[in-house]
């Protein structure tokens, strides 16, 4: 049987632990025998990310920007225990977060409807797809342990030389933690564009869920 020719290369991002085994099995059984495809390989296993100081994750994301599509296996985002287990240089950030920040960061999660799996609401015969804005925010937050009493502020210094703006976050009387997050209008508009495009593509209605009574800006 002639293989199906795939015109555009696909970025292949290998992962950690059992996902490497599962992905290898999928390639061997379902992809290689049937597709003539150029897979651009990037090893996002934690050992190789550590060896490259996580440069491989950035390179993989930029490759996706070039070719337009990539397949990623599950990866480890190390905590203190994983750093010790693998002897890592540092506690690297989430590879997913890094990739999303480079690509723009909109995630669509859709359940798979199976005819032989009963649904909690029987007459819901189409999936509810959740779109999540995954750029900036907690993925790229600046965080700090506060050792003792002191004042924490957010400062904005305009690039055009305008007057700086300072906003107090909290006046600590004892130790604590603080985190600063950001987002951009460009990314928020990109999330909206992606959501409407996805809704039109699937012929689904689009709804926005937000909590504007808490965060006013």
What does this structure look like?
By secondary structure, the protein is of the alpha/beta class. 31% of the residues lie in helices and 23% in strands. The protein has six helices and eleven strands. The strands form five sheets. A three-stranded parallel β-sheet has the order 4-2-5, with helices on both faces. Strands 1-3 form a two-stranded parallel sheet. The longest helix is centred in the C-terminal third of the chain and has 18 residues, at 185-202. The mean pLDDT is 92.
Q: Briefly, what is this?
A:
This protein is of the alpha/beta class. The chain is built from six helices and eleven strands.
| H/E topology pattern | EEHEEHHEHHEEEEEEH
N- and C-termini, Cα separation: 59 Å
Give the helix tally.
6
> Biggest sheet, strands in spatial order?
4-2-5
Which bin fits the share of residues in helices? 25-40%
């Amino acid at each position: 049987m002639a293989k199906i020719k795939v015109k555009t290369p696909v970025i292949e991002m290998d992962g950690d632990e059992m996902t490497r085994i599962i992905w290898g099995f999928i390639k061997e059984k379902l992809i290689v025998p049937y597709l003539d495809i150029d897979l651009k390989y990037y090893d996002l296993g934690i050992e190789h990310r550590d060896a490259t100081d996580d440069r491989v994750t950035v390179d993989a994301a930029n490759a996706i920007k070039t070719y337009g599509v990539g397949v990623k296996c599950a990866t480890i985002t190390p905590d203190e225990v994983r750093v010790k287990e693998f002897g890592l240089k540092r506690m690297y950030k989430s590879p997913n977060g890094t990739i999303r920040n480079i690509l723009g960061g909109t995630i669509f999660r859709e359940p798979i409807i199976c005819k032989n799996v009963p649904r909690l609401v029987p007459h819901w015969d189409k999936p509810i797809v959740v779109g999540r804005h995954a750029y900036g925010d907690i993925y790229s937050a600046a965080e700090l342990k506060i050792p003792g009493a002191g004042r924490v502020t957010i400062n904005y210094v305009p690039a055009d030389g305008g007057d700086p703006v300072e906003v107090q976050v909290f006046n600590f009387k004892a130790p604590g933690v603080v985190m600063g997050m950001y987002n951009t209008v460009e990314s928020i508009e990109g999330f909206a564009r992606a959501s409407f495009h996805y809704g039109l593509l699937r012929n689904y209605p689009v709804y926005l869920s937000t909590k504007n009574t808490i965060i006013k800006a």
